[in-house]
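Postdoc handover notes: sequence design on the structure in folder B. Input tokens:
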């Protein structure tokens, strides 16, 4: 994957997370998301971090309908099914995946992509033309990485199809600072600015897929990802 940069972590993660007290423990404490009436979708290592970086991450639940999800799958499945999942590249940032890029979409899907771009990117921002489609096997996962600053700009946005999942952000130079984002099936996430440049992001593997202490079973998951270009 040319778009990705693997980031080695000096602190063994398992040990590290065990020593953390998860925060917040309830919606009422969450600060950032407590003001909305929506579900709790972002938790972090401190209230301060949730406040500071929480403004640069967004999860919009039910961004697409079941019908729209089916339209996207109908368009994407035939091409994806021709490929095999790749598991064996130990140095890859992604394990258990197949992927494609798409520039031209059918009318129904084009409308969905346009809606994604209109909420995620400032008008007038130059976009990466091809949409990245990443199909993770049930056993697949994405290791911590930062998308290439050479090829991608300040904003990354993605639709999640077929499965709920947990995206974890960890501050690159301070791994005690982290945010977990719950990405329900059919939600849209947006990473901007510091959240995109200063934090690694990853999608947890099924065995580790917990959000705020709650298990989030991982099925096969397809992400439809739009990016802008570097300034
Ligand atoms: C990527 C990535 C996240 C996702 O492909 O760089 O981080 O939602 N994908 O699949
Ligand atoms: Mn990425």
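Designed sequence:
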């Amino acid at each position: 994957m040319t778009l990705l940069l693997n980031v080695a972590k000096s602190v063994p993660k398992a040990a590290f997370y065990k020593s953390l007290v998860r925060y917040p423990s309830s919606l009422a404490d969450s600060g950032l998301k407590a003001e909305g009436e929506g579900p709790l979708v972002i938790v972090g290592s401190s209230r301060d971090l949730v406040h500071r970086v929480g403004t640069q991450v967004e999860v919009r639940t039910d961004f697409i309908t079941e019908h729209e999800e089916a339209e996207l799958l109908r368009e994407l499945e035939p091409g994806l099914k021709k490929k095999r999942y790749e598991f064996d590249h130990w140095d890859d940032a992604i394990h258990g995946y197949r992927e494609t890029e798409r520039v031209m979409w059918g009318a129904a899907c084009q409308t969905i992509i346009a809606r994604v771009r209109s909420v995620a990117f400032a008008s007038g921002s130059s976009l990466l033309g091809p949409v990245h489609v990443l199909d993770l096997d049930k056993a697949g996962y994405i290791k911590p990485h930062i998308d290439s600053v050479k090829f991608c700009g300040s904003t990354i946005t993605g639709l999640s199809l077929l499965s709920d999942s947990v995206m974890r952000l960890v501050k690159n130079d301070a791994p005690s600072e982290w945010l977990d984002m719950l990405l329900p099936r059919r939600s849209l996430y947006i990473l901007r600015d510091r959240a995109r440049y200063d934090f690694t992001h990853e999608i947890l593997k099924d065995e580790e897929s917990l959000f705020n202490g709650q298990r989030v079973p991982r099925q096969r998951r397809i992400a439809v990802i739009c990016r802008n270009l570097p300034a």
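Context for whoever picks this up: The chain is about 20% helix and 35% strand. Don't rerun without checking with the PI first.
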